[in-house]
Amino acid sequence: MAFTNNCRDTSKDRVAKSEMDEIEINKEMASNSVDMNMDQFKENEELKTCGASLKRKEEQFCKSKPGKDGLCWRHSKEPRQQENTPVVGNIVVKTTMKELREIAKKEGLKGYSRKPKGELLKLIETNTAHKFTREEVFTKKELKTIAKRRGITNYSRLGRADLTELVKKNIENAHVKEEIKIVDRRDALKGVFGTITIEPLRQHDMLTFFDVSQSTIASTISDALTKKKALKVQLVLQVEMVKTNPATGENIYVIPHFRSTLTTITESTDLELEIAFMVEKVKENMAKYMCEGSGWTFGHIEKLEIHQNKFKPLNDSSYIALPKPLAQKKAIINVQNTDQECLRCAILSALHPEDVDKNCTKRVGQYKKVV
């Protein structure tokens, strides 16, 4: 009996030992799975964070969001922002919507009440004589970027208005030779008429470029006026525009030309005011292109061209026959004079239609009796 009891005890011990071994194996497997999950978690966290070691804190790592190279902007060796990328402000009209609607109402325009500001401006300018000044406006962050690139100091705590004034003064005091390159291509007629090109030596925003170029534009036109009493002037700005193709993800580049109106400049012209009008027209055309261009954004300024052409005033001339399609309509009076008084004959024919023979309106003798 004693032997039998000992065998039973031994079998119980074996069962208990096997159960204990199984429990230990299960614990070990659970521990290994936890370690694997922790490693996977750490790997995922490393992908979501920079992971660069911090110099000031030992055994601690940067938890900032990584960039393309796996590091954040503080630890990345890639430049944060290319220095040749221009800062572009928003070209805006400061006239309020209330004022625009009042103008549209006074002018008798219809369908203006529900139009957004851009369409309302276009409606008023297209159908009336009103023209609105467009200004380039920068945010405080953009002004700080401009100040940094121009080497201005002590600007970090300034407000937006003071910062704008500081940047403007820096631009006004800048040396032109360091900002722009002037290429004179005038050959015809003793170098008065032709094209003068202004190219930026470093990329500027629109405001800076035109402010720097202002003195060059004015001096170029003034020099031409000393040789000729009058001339026609036009500004043409060439700007690279960029748009992303949504289908392929590739960038599309174009270089449109933004022109001012062809302006007559004489010795009595307010030159500063006329240049301001021409620059305003260039900015206006550029703003329209960016609004209607479906995604076009400002790339960089290529160059500004100053076109100076000969001014030909209207003079009295002799009789010129009407084109055949107009003459067949028999609705236009064209006095057949042999002298240089076409304008005088035209005015007399308009003022005295009842005093002449309707069958002989072309004869100049019909109008001598009413003089």
TrEMBL record:
This is Rho termination factor N-terminal domain-containing protein. It comes from Mytilus galloprovincialis. It comes from the Eukaryota.
